[in-house]
Amino acid sequence: MADKNEILKRAKKRVKARKGFYAHLASFIAVGIFFFLMNMATLGEEPNLWFFFPMLPWMVGLLIHYLTVFGFPVTGALSEEWEAREMYKAIRHERMKEGLPPDPDEAEEAFYPPASQDLELPDLKKQKDPLTRWDDKDIV
Q1: Residue 60 pLDDT more than 90?
Q2: Mean pLDDT confidence for 69-95
């Protein structure tokens, strides 16, 4: 069982990865809108929609970023749960190859990341910064 600090560290890492993806998505949309408007402003007699071409490689990168953060939709591949299941299967396979029986203390659930309910947020108290002269109640 992981301690609270380890759980908090993993939760922060997961939130930071999601935040990074959303920032990536926002910049993709902003630049896409800019390219589209620039394309519309420079249209001649023949419609030439070029804005899509510089966005296509970025779209592929955004898709890869999404898959690394959230995993494949429906199947859940590349998620933490998928990784835990695959790790359990690989260890069992290696033990069987060596002719060893399955480890009775080893359950598939041991490889799963701790559930969010394991994180007891009420127990985590915000430490008071000695340099601050205000309290959280002072903020409106």
Answers
A1: yes
A2: 78
Query: What would the two tokens of residue 39 be?
Result: 């394309």
Q: Is 48 exposed, middle or buried (0-12, 13-18, 19+ CB in 10 A)?
A: exposed
Report which secondary-structure segment, H or E, holds 18.
Answer: helix 4-41
Q: Is the dihedral of CA 129, 131, 137, 140 positive or negative?
A: negative
Q: Which residue has the tokens 């560290």?
A: 9
The answer to whether residues 32 and 51 touch, using CB atoms and an 8 Å cutoff, is: yes
Q: Are 108 and 115 in contact (CB under 8 A)?
A: no
- In which region does residue 79 sit, left (phi positive, over 0), alpha (psi from -120 to 50) or beta (all else)? beta
**What is the C-alpha separation between 103 and 84, in angstroms, rounded?**
16
How much of the chain exceeds pLDDT 90, in percent?
28
Pairwise CA distance, residues 48 & 89, whole Å: 53
